[in-house]
Amino acid sequence: MNCPSLSIISTDIRSVLPKLYTIHGLLYTSSPGVVALTRTWLTSAVCNSELIPCFTNYCLFRADRNTKRGGGVLLAARKSLCPNILDIDTNIETMWISIAQTHPLCVIGVCYKPPDTCDTFIQALHDELSHTSNNFSSSRVILLGYFTTQVLIGIL
């Protein structure tokens, strides 16, 4: 299957659970291939089955923050796109997947930068992007997320 375009929705959701009805409506009307959410506020106490009615026909990938309230990222990709989670060692709130049903292969990441992050965040993000780009040099690499202006200035 050749997918010249891939529809993606990305938003800073600031707590998924109270917004499931809204997300369901958005997925129904837009039918995106990939959904990227930041600040999901999910923990390991929340099972994917609680989110599935909203994400029917999607594979869910989560990186929950369990040390304190807030944070967390989620990627949901249509099952028909054959998404796979990528094992990328990270010390920042990111998650990466590959989409097999695109040509070239598409690698999608989602990142959340908490406001209290130390100055090493920019370097860690740069290192992670470099690593991902080098390992998937013939792929399209897309990073989505919730960033502050200071982060973008530091990267540019």
User: What kind of sheet is the major sheet?
Assistant: 4 strands, mixed
SSE pattern: EHEEEEEEHEH
CATH class: Alpha Beta
Count of DSSP helices? 3
Give the low-pLDDT segments.
none
Q: Quick one: overall form?
A: globular
Largest sheet, spatial ordering of strands: 1-2-4-3
Distance between the termini: 34 Å
* Multimeric state: single chain
Q: State the helical fraction.
A: 10-25%
Q: In percent terms, what proportion of residues is strand?
A: 25-35%
Give a count of the beta strands, DSSP E runs of length 2 or more: 8
* CATH A-level architecture: 4-Layer Sandwich
Query: What is the SS-derived class?
Result: alpha/beta
Cα-based radius of gyration, to the nearest Å: 15 Å
CATH superfamily: Endonuclease/exonuclease/phosphatase
The residue-averaged pLDDT reads 89
The CATH topology turns out to be Deoxyribonuclease I, Chain A
Number of domains: 1
